[in-house]
Request: fold
Amino acid sequence: MKEKFHVSSSPHIHSGVTTSEIMRDVAIALMPASVMGVYQFGFQAFLVLLVSVTACVVTEYLYEHFMKKPYHPYECSALVTGLLIGMNLPASIPLWMPVVGGIFAILVVKQLYGGLGQNIMNPALAARCFLLICFTGQMTNFSILTASEYGASNKGTYLFYHGAAAVDGITGATPLAAVKAGESVQLFDLFWGFTGGVIGETSVVMILIGAVYMLYRKVINLRIPLAYLLSFVLFLVLFGGHGADPTYLAIQLCGGGLMLGAFFMATDYTTSPITPNGQIVFGICLGILTGIFRIFGKSAEGVSYAIIFCNLLVPVIEKVTMPTAFGRGRKG
Amino acid sequence: MAAGTFQGGMHPYDGKELSMDRHTSVLLPKKELVFPVSQHIGAPAVPVVSVGDTVLAGQKLAQATGYVSSCVISSVSGTVKAVEPRLTATGGKVLSIVVENDGEYRMAQGIGELRDVSRLSKEEIRKIIQEAGIVGMGGAGFPTHVKLTPKEDTAIDYVIVNGSECEPYLTSDYRMMLEEPKRLIAGLKIVLKLFERAEGIIAVEDNKPEAIAKVKEAIGTDSRISVRQLKTKYPQGSERQLIYAVTGRKINSSMLPSDAGCIVNNVDTILSVGLAVAESTPLMRRVVTVTGNAIKEPGNFIVKTGSSYQELLEAAGGFCAPVGKMISGGPMMGQALYSLDIPVTKVSSALLVLTQEEARQLEPGACIRCGRCVSVCPGRIVPQKLMEYAQRFDTKGFEKIDGMECCECGCCTYVCPAGRKLTQSFKQMRRQVQEERRKK
Reply:
């Protein structure tokens, strides 16, 4: 035989599921919440998302180009990071801030630590916290210009630019801040997302649709989100001061970045444990920390810090939760 | 009883529909036949014929050396043409006895005579199996007489016939369960004679209902033998996973099935035991599936050992699509071939030919720590961590996190979205560790 054949070690077949496909699925799963964010906060929200995605993708491209690394345009990982950063910003933020956030996330948090799969913190959350510390004012300003402030003559443009939130006359305070200040919040609005907040966190429904899609596509499993949400609820019941009051618990679950964090950020492969038991431990740590931050902390929020902190615990968690090999240890 | 199963594993495309309904046909070799002296685990056999000798079918060509070794039997009559190194499926050259087939298939004396099994002692049965050159025909090639000689016969509770055939595309065991259920049960009964306290179990995945029905029919009312249905999942046929699914007992890499009171044999091996003991026919043939989307007429063949793979291909009508990869065995654990000028040995279960499209490999990328490898690993180890040690050639670390428990089933590599060659690295590391252990 003269032909040449491909020879390699087994296995000779592959599932066909690739990194790019997984990243694409995450991006698709983020779409409902993003679209809702744009509907709610208008064209300015769209601009924030667009700018932060562009900043991340371009930073990644430039870094890999100048470092002479192979560039994987289809890997979509930078796109997902950019989308998540944008979704974690208020719509009213000046547009240079997502640029700073995107560069920080991709360059400092991801690439300088070794690139895809090597970062020790979730890049999107690290960028959010970075911006939050540097530009606290802009990052926590959820107020929306009223029509008169904007100029009544441009009513159409105003609504286009500021979205449904402007129509509904949302004042701007996030629901959790309102609750902390002793005000009441409509659970229905919270669930559907007709409240103030960052672009992507407000609508629980849309986030859950995305989460179901990821579960269906087996991109994530329920270990981390369930352990996170259950332990958080348990912590609130014990220490929240409201007992098992369902309304209070529901508001805490639906408000703020918890849902987005539990399903999209805490489940980030690179920064969560790879061991099955470790994922449960990780989720529980997150639930407790988020509870501590929200109840005892100064800010009404706590999800971002909890996740970032627990990201740093991952190596330890993995070490203590290494599974027992089949047939080793206790006789089965 | 619910179908038995194990943790981990996965469901690759199984491709069995290509060949599962093809009745086996006997393939007679045309040209020379090649018999490597090492087709088994253990010491290579030593040739007992020389160039120019006339040999008969069933005649011994090479004698086992020592206990863990196996004889090599001629499958045809003819003349010994050469004793020289020849290429085998493993990719290397192995000393082989080359026999020019005279096409007459004259049998050596006594071959094919029926024996009264009930009058044989245990020792006689084991001796016959050893002399017949029978080894584990599922792929490992461990000498069967050794496997059938545990420390204590009475400590064996189960003799399990591995009919799960979990490798995608392979249908040879399935065909044998359909076509030769009576002989299979007869073979199993002979093995059960060795282990008076054992119960015989034929373990079959639940995607083979016809085989289950046929085997059940052949068992009849025998209370010592039963069929155990297993969930269809790769690698159900892996010995450790199989024992767990059938008995709930767990063994690790340093234990033998007999430590868990089990003896596990492949379908074709049990058939060969039956043929050898009851019909005085040593191991001269095996069932081979020739399949894949690049094969014109996939099918199952009863092939004389020593036949060339090239003849297998011709029997199946040749290629019908641009060839991507030729594999001896299944797609998960088989050996890629660069030539078909190699002989069918006792452990050749299949010739699988993938199209170029199917054989395309992912360019290995960065690990994103998705954990897919962990969730499919039947050994319940963490391939992602093993890979970190493998990349540093750190054999100590590799052993510490149970790298030696890897059964090289390939699940982790199959699911890795970054296309990393995990299994390949683990194989290398495991060889390295075994080497180091031998030196100690």
User: Anything to note?
Assistant: The CA atoms of residues 177 and 300 of chain A lie 5 Å apart.
